[in-house]
Specification:
By secondary structure, the chain is an all-alpha fold. It has a domain of 44 residues. Helix content is 69%, strand content 0%. α1 packs antiparallel against α2. The longest helix has 19 residues. The two termini are 33 Å apart. Belongs to the transposase mutator family. Keywords: DNA recombination, DNA-binding, Transposable element, Transposition. One of its GO terms (biological process) is DNA transposition. It holds the Pfam family Transposase_mut. Required for the transposition of the insertion element.
Length: 126
């Protein structure tokens, strides 16, 4: 459904899902059907933007690393110490400092789509 080119195609995919899994997982099918009005506007975005919207793996990974770093240390004497721990956790993700170039290459199609869709609201620096 996420990659369907139109709302009608997504609805067809939902019907196929319901046919295959509806008996075994009726609550999930009802959830999709009840939330269709909220999901449909998502389909108006380009595929590049959709991929960014429904893919939160990078954010979840960052949160997992934050939780791990905080759990290992247990407690902090003050807020500044906690902020330093989180800062060092972020820095350890890209110790060479070259990650921004790799990040921008992977995100270039999505950034271009955002710039077109939301003209004037986002700037892209090459």
């Amino acid at each position: 459904m996420y990659s369907a080119p139109t709302e009608a195609a997504a609805k067809t995919a939902l019907d196929e899902l319901a046919g295959k899994w509806g008996e075994r997982y009726p609550a999930i099918i009802r959830l999709w059907q009840n939330a269709w009005a909220e999901f449909a506007p998502f389909l108006s975005y380009s595929p590049e933007i959709r991929k960014v919207i429904y893919s939160t793996n990078a954010i979840e990974s960052m949160h997992a690393r934050f939780r791990r770093a905080v759990r290992v240390r247990g407690h902090f004497p003050n807020e500044q110490a906690a902020m330093k721990c989180l800062y060092l956790t972020i820095r350890s993700l890209d110790p060479t400092g070259r990650g921004r170039a790799r990040w921008s290459n992977r995100w270039k199609p999505a950034l271009n789509a955002f710039a077109v869709t939301f003209e004037g609201r986002i700037e892209i620096n090459d």
